[in-house]
């Protein structure tokens, strides 16, 4: 079993990888659903889950079943269509990943498979949200999510519900996909969701709808810059674990998004 330092570093690098993973995939059939109000989803995903688990701890088991039912199909969509270089045949990879996460649960191999499924599922969730929210409002939603996450951690309101949710698991030793475990470290599902969301946001085509090769190149560079920033900021942020037990892993992601957004605006 790797040490905590190695484990949390791997999870931070997985966060960075999820920024670079999504490709731009237009969804014109979702246009009628576009609204800035969907930008509340990132922040509400923390507030609602923490509130429900805090006041009704048995709901954590229900959330584990929700993740079990939703994540694998979402991962299929990501593998078959949403990630860079996706092919329909890739979607079949979700099956061995799920089997490995189930039969090797508790081992590094099983945790890695479960982590891959959860991360890929988050790519699809991020793509859905990016498809229905204007970019500016969605950036504000990410910043709000990070601010609420930081406040809950500082007020020690997140640790209890997080522990309950992480301990929950479906029957028959089925994988707990509502949490990201690797070795001695753990992240919440929301910590994967926010980076996949940022990756989808950075991958989107220009506001005027242009899809030139030049823009695609700029979009890819934005993702790689964002991934590099998330890696550097998250790994640096991890050093604070020498002083505290819990950190809001959404904060480095929000900072990276702000830097990339400001950098992009300065180049216009």
What is this structure's SSE topology?
Layout: H1 4-20, H2 41-55, H3 59-82, H4 94-103, H5 108-132, H6 135-154, H7 159-167, E1 179-182, E2 185-188, H8 189-203, H9 213-238, H10 250-266
Antiparallel strand pairs: 1-2
Helix pairs in contact: 1-8, 1-9, 2-6, 2-7, 3-5, 3-7, 4-5, 5-8, 6-10, 8-9, 9-10
Keywords:
3% strand; 10 helices; 268 residues; mainly alpha; 2 strands
Provide structural commentary.
The protein is an all-alpha fold and 268 residues long. The chain has one domain. The chain contains ten helices and two strands. Strands 1-2 form a two-stranded antiparallel ribbon. Helix 1 runs parallel beside helix 8 (189-203). The protein starts with a helix and ends with a helix.
Quick rundown:
The protein has 268 residues and is mostly helical. The protein has helices at 4-20, 41-55, 59-82, 94-103, 108-132, 135-154, 159-167, 189-203, 213-238, 250-266; strands at 179-182, 185-188. Helix 3 packs across helix 5, helix 6 packs antiparallel against helix 10 (250-266) and helix 9 runs antiparallel to helix 10.
Compressed to H and E, one letter per element, the order equals HHHHHHHEEHHH
| Residue runs with pLDDT of under 50 for 5 or more positions | 206-216
| Rg calc | 18 Å
Count of discrete alpha- or pi-helical segments spanning 4 or more residues: 10
- Adjacency order of strands in the biggest sheet: 1-2
Q: Strand share of the residues?
A: under 5%
Distance between the termini: 48 Å
* Total separate domains: 1
| Global morphology | globular
Report the count of strand segments. Answer: 2
Q: Give the rounded overall mean pLDDT.
A: 92
């Amino acid at each position: 079993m790797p040490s905590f330092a190695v484990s949390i570093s791997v999870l931070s690098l997985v966060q960075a990888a999820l920024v670079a993973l999504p490709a731009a995939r237009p969804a014109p059939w979702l246009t009628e659903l576009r609204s800035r109000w969907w930008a509340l989803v990132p922040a509400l995903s923390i507030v609602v889950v923490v509130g429900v688990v805090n006041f009704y701890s048995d709901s954590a088991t229900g959330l584990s079943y929700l993740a079990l039912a939703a994540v694998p199909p979402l991962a299929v969509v990501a593998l078959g269509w949403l990630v860079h270089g996706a092919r329909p045949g890739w979607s079949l990879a979700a099956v061995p990943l799920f089997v490995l996460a189930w039969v090797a649960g508790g081992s590094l191999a099983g945790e890695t498979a479960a982590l891959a499924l959860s991360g890929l599922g988050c790519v699809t969730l991020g793509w859905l949200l990016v498809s229905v929210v204007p970019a500016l409002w969605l950036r504000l939603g990410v910043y709000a999510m990070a601010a609420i996450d930081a406040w809950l951690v500082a007020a020690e309101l997140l640790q209890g519900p997080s522990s309950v949710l992480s301990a929950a698991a479906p029957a028959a030793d089925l994988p707990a996909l509502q949490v990201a475990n690797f070795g001695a470290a753990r992240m919440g599902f929301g910590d994967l969701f926010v980076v996949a969301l940022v990756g989808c946001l950075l991958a989107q085509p220009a506001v005027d709808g242009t899809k030139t090769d030049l823009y695609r190149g700029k979009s890819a560079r934005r993702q790689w810059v964002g991934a590099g920033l998330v890696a550097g900021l998250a790994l640096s942020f991890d050093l604070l674990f020498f002083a505290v037990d819990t950190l809001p892993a959404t904060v480095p992601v929000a900072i990276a998004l702000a830097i990339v957004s400001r950098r992009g605006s300065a180049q216009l």
